[in-house]
Write a structure and sequence with these properties.
38% of the residues lie in helices and 20% in strands. With 418 residues, the chain is an alpha+beta fold. The chain folds into two domains: 20-315, Bira Bifunctional Protein, Domain 2 (BirA Bifunctional Protein, domain 2), CATH 3.30.930.10; 329-416, Anticodon-binding domain (Rossmann fold, 3-Layer(aba) Sandwich). The protein is elongated and about 90 Å long.
């Protein structure tokens, strides 16, 4: 007997396995989002998991950088896991200057943040990003918002709101309130927590950052009186051109977005239920590319959180009829004598592009095979016994309805075809 210690199977906090049933929902959401992105002319892009640290640092803000996975690789290089998809893409735009402008890309890849795991917040999660580089037109901002609205409507969300504000409006609020310019961003980072913390908690945090009580009072007073600036008004007008109902979006003077790189319009999506935080967030960041090239380039985009989107679909049971598997039928093996006949039917289905499975143990009893198909959620089982084989027939058992019928082999494809 081996003396080695048995290893406990486990995952790190904030990291998850996705079993087939959950992964099917994720893949379907990705398919829906990708089709919508491409319908609007966005092209696919992927970037490496690891980036040099100087690519990542100095773009997000101190609080965000505390959550980065940073380390030295085996070559002694300072590297880090992607914190988001925006900064790596900004690096791509700078590295490949001959890309046609505007450059519209979508990107669906995992990112990593060393956050405290909680509902809807993981340390490894997948972002679905769309960004437009090379134009400052309010129609570019509105197009991103229109895509957000279509994506969430398409997956079945009924009650959600796209909150819209502007960093310029917030900067004017800071100026009116008497906040020193060098503290604009840190104050905005605290205001961004108003949807997670109480007003008293945020005021306390602002005080701990060195802002006097009068200035803090002025901040909240100025936020209440904030109105859309001319750029936001142009975006709202453009949203009407895109045909987006006003029920789906609103101006929200408190919306701040915590990352430092935003320069103009910002937006975030919340669902009424469940209380899971924002499910998308983005905005305009016209100065990020300039950190790589020395020349600013207009840019706007958003990320849609795949994990939270799937969490909402699952928790609200929005897809009750979603199949557990894509396999349409299990070809059973009645006996080793009829193995060749079963494989003939199996091959016929595959040749006609029908997702199919054949039971791999010819000695297994039929009941065991049917139980396997039922457990996996396969809707049909195909049985070819001696009587069926002699007459070129098959028995098709509907495992959902618990009924069966015997039909000619030639009719099988129409019976189980997707």
């Amino acid at each position: 007997m081996s003396s080695s210690k048995q290893i406990e199977p486990r995952t790190l906090p904030g990291f998850r396995d996705f079993l087939p049933e959950t992964l099917r929902v994720r893949k379907k959401v990705i398919q829906i989002f990708s089709e919508i992105f491409e319908k609007y002319g966005f092209e696919p892009l992927e970037t490496p998991t690891l980036e040099f640290q100087d690519i990542l640092l100095g773009k997000y803000g101190e609080e965000a950088e505390k959550l980065m996975y940073l380390f030295k690789d085996n070559g002694g290089r300072d590297v880090g896991l992607r914190y988001d998809l925006t900064v790596p893409t900004a690096r791509v735009i700078a590295q490949y200057p001959n890309l046609p402008k505007p450059f519209k890309r979508y990107q669906i890849q995992p990112t990593w943040r060393a956050e405290k795991p909680q509902k809807g917040r993981y340390r490894e999660f997948t972002q679905c990003d769309i960004d437009t580089f090379g134009t400052g037109s309010p129609f570019a901002d509105a197009e991103i918002i229109a895509i957000i609205q279509e994506c969430f409507s398409k997956v079945g969300f009924k009650e959600f709101t796209i909150r819209i504000n502007s960093r310029q409006v917030l900067f004017e609020t800071m100026e009116t309130a008497g906040v020193p310019e060098e503290k604009y961003l840190t104050a905005i980072q605290s205001i961004d927590k108003l949807d997670k913390k109480s007003t008293d908690d945020v005021q306390k945090e602002l005080s701990e950052k060195g802002l006097p009580s009068k200035t803090i009072t002025n901040i909240f007073s100025s936020l209440k009186s904030s109105r859309p600036n001319d750029n936001l008004k142009a975006i709202f007008a453009a949203l009407k051109q895109f045909g987006i109902p006003e029920d789906f979006y609103k101006f929200d003077p408190v919306l701040s977005r915590g990352l430092d790189y935003y320069t103009g319009a910002i937006f975030e999506t919340l669902v009424t239920e469940p209380k899971i935080g924002s499910i998308s967030g983005g905005g305009r960041y016209d100065k990020l590319i300039g950190q790589f090239t020395g020349v600013d380039l207009p840019a706007v985009g958003t990320t849609i959180g795949l994990d939270r989107t799937v969490d909402v679909i699952t928790e609200l049971n929005l897809w009750p009829d979603a199949p557990k598997t894509t396999v349409k039928a299990l070809i059973t093996i009645f006996s080793s004598v009829l193995l060749e006949k079963s494989f003939k039917i199996y091959s016929l289905c595959r040749q006609n592009n029908i997702p199919i499975e054949i039971y791999l143990d010819p000695e297994a009893k039929l009941d065991k095979q049917l139980k396997y198909a039922d457990q996996k959620g396969i809707p049909f089982a195909v049985i070819i016994g001696p009587d069926e084989a002699a007459k070129n027939l098959v028995t098709v058992k509907n495992l959902r309805l618990k009924e069966q019928k015997t039909i000619p082999e030639a009719e099988l494809l129409d019976q189980i075809r997707p």
